[in-house]
Amino acid sequence: QIFNQHNAKAPNLEQAFLRMAQMEPNLDHDISWFFLPSYWAKMVVALTSFLCFANSYDGDFVFDDSEAIINNKDLRAETPLGDLWYHDFWGSKLSSNTSHKSYRPLTVLTFRINYLFAGGFYPVGFHVINIILHCAISVLMVDVFSILLGGLQFSNKGRRLNLAPKSSLLAALLFAVHPVHTECVAGIVGRADLLCALFFLLSFLGYCKAFRENKEGHTFSVFWVLVSVGLGAIAMLCKEQGITILGLNAVFDALVINKINLLELIQKLLYKDKALENAGLLRKGLLFRITLLMCGGAGILYIRWRIMGTGPPAFTEVDNPASFADSLFVRAINYNYYYSLNAWLLLCPWWLCFDWSMGCIPLIKSVSDWRIIALAALWFCLIGLICQALCSEDSHKRRILTLGLGFLIIPFLPASNLFFRVGFVVAERVIYLPSIGYCILFTYGFSLLSKQAKKKKILAVAVLGILLINVMRCALRSSQWRSEEQLFRSALSVCPLNAKVHYNVGKNLADKGNQSAAIKYYREAVRLNPKYVHAMNNLGNILKERNELHEAEELLSLAVQIQPDFAAAWMNLGIVQNSLRRFEEAEQSYWTAIKHRKKYPDCYYNLGRLYADLNRHIDALNAWRNATVLKPEHSLAWNNMIILLDNTGNLAQAEAVGREALELIPNDHSLMFSLANVLGKSQKYKESEALFLKAIKANPNAASYHGNLAVLYHRWGNLDLAKKHYEVSLKLDPMAPGTKENYNLLRRKLEQLQRKGG
Which positions does the entry assign to TPR repeats (predicted)? Predict the structure, then answer.
């Protein structure tokens, strides 16, 4: 609905125009809700959205944050900025076969800026930006909903009018406090969805600006249409869903700007009516604008496809089991069931989970499965809404329902499995944008109820109660996202059949040193998914550390049998075989791991240990040297080289390796200790003493550091200092090997000296 006035003589023209516009069908006529001026409405929405998620500001890096942020080299200053345009969201090359193809360079750029300003990986800054973004998006929703629910009208001064202030406030509040948004706001990786939504909305508002009549009297501005396309491209560079705004802009143009009746248009097309201009298709430049949107969208998609370099990503069956089903019927039924679960999360966001894969939602394999009811309910509601959107005689109703369904369905299409396989079953983050459509439909339903209800205040109180419950649910869910322990444990009651949930709980416990509890959860993960190789690998590792070597070997052997290119499992199998003194098999396992992962410094390190046990010293040194070439900060490999050269009498070579290592890792106290031992044997006492003291300063509670410094003083003739450090060493570790004997020798020597002196 566009209306422009040019009567400058009217004294209160804008107010009169607003009253005239509000006489048309409008949700606010029926809705029982609060009226606030635009500025105050936006303040209320901003404050409410802030209260929902404020307690997530000091949360940790959790779940996918580790891979997308902590382990992502694209965040570090040494990575050229240009690389961001050729890497995926996780820092891998897009051309790699292992890449997820999630191309979001602008989101990664904001992570990099966060990292640089914070001076490291401090999560507070990352969380604060996410909260601010959600607040800004919620505020923008007031303007967006005022257009979607009240229509697009401008005053004679070119100012857009809000013809639905009450309903737009309600819809914006519903959006701001929806608990399903918690993953996007409290999870730092959700930044992609937030940035995408921000530019998605700016693109829509920019498209609306194109219809503000300019001084030349043109009915629309090509400039603002192109700006809208550009903002849509930016949205897509934040997350793939952003491209769908171009389709929504076209739908908005047809329904609101050109007031096309879709049913009439379909009928005219079916009957090949030549008077399509009368249906509004060619009026007001619609065809030209849609051509611009289509060309812009096609160009953006083509450029993205060229950058990707290869085909779509390769996902596994556990990521999305329905997409691997042989039967088209099973795939279709389960896809539709997933849609119904997404719809349920919008309607009742009580059961929320960080991950819905790995058996969380068992496949529907026959029509006798009771869950078919959910599909029937979903399509019953959708068909009913579509019929009303197409067939209603009320143009106002048709417009709102069609826009509501459009914003609900179109942004969800990239996650629907219809065009390509996606790497998840259900993901709460992907319904951040579709929730806009849900809020439109909810608000419209509330207006219909208000129109029929006799006690409108009771209905308003009920809706206010829903908002308050959602605020509390957001606060609770945000607190669960503050740490991995709370997040993973919260999922146990929602998805008890999800092997990944049990795996993550187990991993969190293992990281905290609670191996016994971790074993329980890893075993449950393997029971739920007998092909879960990562759970087998981690369980095998713990059993190896507990010296339960035979069971560890069985698990790791099964893991590499299921996934022959699982390099980490091959390496761990080699460690177990080495412990079982099956050296040839261990060597073979190590080389198989290196075959599948060329740059594997830890495997070279363990291979070097095997060669050292077999007295193959040259091979051991070569393996450790390979480890340090691949990972210059590999302290253990450097240390073992120094110690082996020291033990074999190659003191000059050991000293050279030690100095090289300390240049690369200057603050590593273990390297200082090893080099100090070599220097002491070479009678370079002063330099050795300095390194020992530096190592002790860095790690004052290491008994061996004090003990070996005491030996140095003993050799050097500084007997009082030797006695002091022997005593410190024995105090820290009374059972330290050799220290007590050396201390007794020193005491006898001191007694002899005293007797001679006496």
Answer: 499-532, 533-566, 601-634, 703-736
Report pLDDT digits (tens) over 68-99: 999 999 998 888 988 888 888 888 888 777 77
**pLDDT at 518 exceeding the cut of 70:** yes
Alpha helices in 599-702 (DSSP H): 601-613, 617-630, 635-647, 651-664, 669-681, 685-698
Please report the DSSP string for 424-449 in residue order. -S--GGGGTTTHHHHHHHHHHHHHHH
Burial class (CB in 10 A: 0-12, 13-18, 19+), 177: buried
pTM: 0.85
Write the pLDDT tens digit of every residue in 339-383.
999 999 999 998 999 988 888 888 999 889 999 999 999 999 999
Instruction: For residue 17, name the pLDDT band (cuts at 50, 70, 90).
Output: very low
| Token digits of residue 506 | 């187990």
Which element (helix H / strand E) includes 11?
Answer: none
**In this structure, how many other beta carbons lie within 10 angstroms of the beta carbon of residue 666?**
10
DSSP one-letter string for 99-127 = ------HHHHHHHHHHHHHHTS--HHHHH
C-alpha dist (Å) from residue 101 to 242, 427, 663: 15, 17, 39
Place of tokens 């529907």: 364
Total Cβ atoms within 10 A of residue 633: 12
Per-residue model confidence (pLDDT) at position 310: 56
Q: Please say whether the dihedral angle defined by the alpha carbons of residues 447, 449, 451 and 453, taken in this order, is positive or negative.
A: negative
Please count the CA atoms within 13 angstroms of the CA of 363 that sit on its side-chain side. 18
Distance CA(547)–CA(545), nearest Å, equals 5
Instruction: Tell me the one-letter amino acid at 254.
Output: A
